[in-house]
Amino acid sequence: MSRFSGKKIVVGVTGSIAAFKVAGWVSTMTKEGADVSVIMTAAGSRFVAPLTFAALSGNPVLTDMFKAEESHAISHIELGQKADLLLIAPATANTIAKLAHGIADDLLATTVLAASCPVMIAPAMNSGMFENPITQRNIRLLMDAGYTIIDPAYGQMACKTEGPGRLAEWENAEEKILQNLTTQDLTGQKILITAGPTREALDPARFLSNRSSGKMGYALARTAVRRGADVHLISGPTTLLTPYGVKKTSVVSAEEMYAQVVQACTDCTVIIKAAAVSDFRPQNTATQKVKKDDAEFVLQLEQTDDILKKLGEMKEKHNYLLVGFAAESCNLREAGEKKLKNKNLDLIAINDISNNNTGFEANTNQVTLLDSDGFTDLPLTSKEETANLILDRISAQLASAV
Question: What is the mean pLDDT of residues 291-305?
């Protein structure tokens, strides 16, 4: 299922040069299954033609309150009450001031005032205008009224000045929008998630590692934040961007991950250990790069500390829900049962890494969940949707424990 499937979203476009960026936002949400209606102010229509937004959304664009009423039943009432979300982007200083003081002199302003759905505002303006105490006061008034502000980015403006006020990047805005459209069933939960591989150094140039990309752990972090959780991600080396709203601690070796996890776990309510931590490391690490002529062909290994076992031993004292992963290539259920018991887990996700669609580096996954209620086979789907299904089970366990 697409992330915006079935959602009715009203987008208000005001008079900023950043309006052209919002055309891309509307296109993306529409392609992801949203029913998008666009309202444009007179000034907004001078930056991007209404026909552009009509073509991208597949719906007529509304620009005038009285013309709109000719074909829509009281549009300014209907739109904001039938929508799942009303997003004003870009929002100028003028529009923010009008909304903060209840001025309803155009279709967009009246729609916002009559709206019963969540309202989000993405400011975009010159840095001086954004930092002006009057604008900041108006933004605080809107926040106090329950509106969500999508913080602008820092950078160079169209006027060649530099500072805060650029329209937020879509990646950040998307996460805020999705959070507003998602049930906040994890609000108040402090979730620690581990992700990615670890690297165990042979010498300054070489290391032992595994094929983990970190995608599953990062998907869990991203979706948990959307559902209201406070998320701390401890990650081994990956090329993935830190999910919006997530606190991340980067580590390299199993020893570093062990130390960070044991330190961070004491005030968590949920721990999800999705990292593929190295089970072994070299007994000796060369301080200089080993040359071919000097290389030995037998590598002596030793076991790394078992992070999940340590968490299982600490669980009763600190009262967190503990979730593990089992990456297996055969005898999946037997291995999962053994790990659930031996590591004192509340839930385990058993992953078949022998399949190209479910193994390391894939964008899809299919896991089997095991807890005290038995086995549940999840469908083959994206790692993000798999993360949501795992979090559904975690949410249910948390609710039953209350």
Answer: 89
CB 20 within 8 A of CB 47: yes
Lowest mean pLDDT among 8-12, 221-225, 262-266, 296-300: 296-300
Average pLDDT over residues 181-192: 97
Model pTM above 0.85: yes
- 330 catalytically annotated: no
**Complete domains list, the chain, with CATH:** 8-181 (3.40.50.1950), 190-401 (3.40.50.10300)
Catalytic residue among 117, 159, 265, 330: 159
pLDDT at residue 31, rounded to an integer: 97
Instruction: Give the pLDDT score at 67.
Output: 67
Q: Tens digit of pLDDT for each residue in 40-77?
A: 999 999 999 999 999 999 999 999 876 655 455 456 67
